[in-house]
Amino acid sequence: MQRSSPRRQLPRDPEPSTPRLVTVADDILAGRIVLPKFQREFVWSRQQILNLLDSVARNYPIGSILLWESDQELASERAIADLEVDSLPSGRHVNYLLDGQQRLSTICGALYWEPDGDPKSPWNIVYDLTEGTFHHRDDFEEPPPTQFPLRFLLDGAEFVVRLERVADEELKQRARLLYNRFANYQIATVTLRDMSIEEIGLVFERINTTGTDLTLVEFMRAATWTPDFDLLDSIDEIKEVLRRKRYGDLDPKVMLRAIAATAGFGYSRGDTEQIRKLPKPKLKEAIEKTKEAASRAVDFLVTEIRTPSSRTLPYDTQLAILVEVFDRIARSRSLVALARSRSRNSMTAPPLRTQRPGRNVDRRAATRSKRTLRRSLPRSVPLVSA
């Protein structure tokens, strides 16, 4: 009787909840909800900030947020809206914020801002009780009693003191309503559990309401991060080598694919995601080899193929392939050098004639690269003989 293959365990159903908005903000500042580094930086305009605050004040819906509960340690931000975030001990389950960063950054910044010498901060916000609108201020002067600084709204003692300064009872009632709206506003929250980081990457790309996909580089940066290693910094180092050769600013994804190929995987997204499984010494070694091979590949493209910048390449991936070719050439030379060394140190074995085969390896690899590139380059780009 044929045994049925074991079924893959499905993740638990997403868990919906409706916590208070200020509770979620407190959890972020306490480090219980974490912003992974593959999130975008804060990009909202001042008007978008005011619009969100107005929606909360009017009890309008502002959308849901998405969390991923995991004990996996990813690169995460240590600040939000210029506010420091506490750290939890490693190994603890945390909730990574997958969707809602701009909105929660706005809430944290507006309600908990601490002046740091910049009066034009986007978080220097007041609520005008007379007009019923939010405004930015550009100074540290004490506002009139009818303008309530939002950073004091949830400070019970400060709220009472400022409320007493308001003479009009109707305006006082409006201030109390504002307090209650922010203190009790609930936000729809969905928490994902039992999902791998690969699945989370796909989820992030599909639900991101801003239309900005999670790039492969950002995803792998978070997956490989440690306190002493940042993949994006390593990619920037490779790009800097090529910039010094005036070859242009290349897409970081091309360099990431080159690293994956140099490490022995391949060029596809699935191959590239494998680098997160490499021990850090192996990953750093692959990055260093990629840097050296990329430098030689650009020299070859400029001098032999006459492509003076990355803009003249029909496809960016061609550079990643060529980087791997030159890495293989370097490995072949290393093997030849090792063979020569063993031959010189051997007293019984005849000397190995490795010089010509080594040159043949270089020549064959260079010829294949030129043929591949020529098939895809415009006819107006001339080739010179090697």
UniProtKB/TrEMBL annotation:
Basic residues composition-biased segments: 366-377
Boundaries of every GmrSD restriction endonucleases N-terminal domain copy: 31-223
InterPro entries: GmrSD_N
Residue numbers spanned by region Disordered: 340-386
This protein's name: GmrSD restriction endonucleases N-terminal domain-containing protein
Organism: Streptosporangium album
